[in-house]
Amino acid sequence: MKIIFDMTCLLMNSSIVRRKVFKPYKTKRMTIILTILLSFSGADCPSGFVRHNSPSKEVCCRFISCSPGTFVQPCQHNMTSDVCLPCAATSYLLDSTNSSFQYPCIKTNCPPEATTSTAFSRYGCRLRCKCDEERGYYGKDPCSCKRSSTGSTSVIGRSTAKLLAAKGCSVLVTGSRSPDDAQEALKDIQSTAVGKVHFVQSNLRDDTQVLEVCRQAD
Fold first, then answer.
1. pTM of this prediction exceeds 0.90
2. 14-24, pLDDT tens digit by residue?
3. What is the DSSP code (8-state) at residue 104?
4. Mind spelling out the 3-state secondary structure of 80-116?
5. How far apart are CA 36 and CA 131, in angstroms?
6. pLDDT, tens only, 83-130
């Protein structure tokens, strides 16, 4: 670059040309200024508040945190506070939530034979449900509830029970009028049993006792 520059000046024999040609290549210190513009609209909320958008308007609500089992209800009027409300009886929320990260309550879809429970079932399907005993359903698995029946009952004889127990089936022996006879039958069945054999003394015409027998048999 310097050689071409000098040759140009020599041929032109002009110091003016030298200055004109050299000037664009002079090293200059350049200062770059980056300006970041942040735009704040009138709807921005002060510290401690969050903005909620709705179809009709935007409001600033005071930030809150809600414990499990409750959800955030956004405020309706500007500069007021959000509210923690409990989930409905047929829904639940296991996690904490707050105004910035709002989690909805989860609806409990229990089978028709079950009702909402305060805890997850430990057996069968993992739902916050339990068999509705008030309507005559029983069982540990809320997705496989059984209907209890009263009045006339179907029974099997000792020989049939003994045969089933020997094949590995679980047998429940129940009696109310003659406990001694029931205990004798129990020992006879247990003598060859491979499956489980239980005894419950109850009156199968009593609804409460029927449910207890069903729990033992489940």
1. no
2. 544 444 444 44
3. P
4. EECEEEECCCCEECCCCEECCCCCCCEECCCCCCEEE
5. 63
6. 999 999 889 998 999 999 999 999 988 999 999 888 888 888 888 899
Q: Phi and psi dihedrals of 11, rounded to 5?
A: -65, -40
Q: Are 207 and 150 in contact (CB under 8 A)?
A: yes
Amino acid found at 217:
A
pLDDT of residue 160: 72
Spacing of C-alpha 191 from chain mean position: 48
Spell out the domain ranges in the chain: 49-107, 109-147, 150-218
Compute the distance between CA of residue 132 and CA of residue 170 in angstroms, rounded to an integer.
24
Q: Which candidate, 59, 101, 67, 110, places its Cα nearest to that of 87?
A: 67
Cβ(82)–Cβ(63) below 8 Å: yes
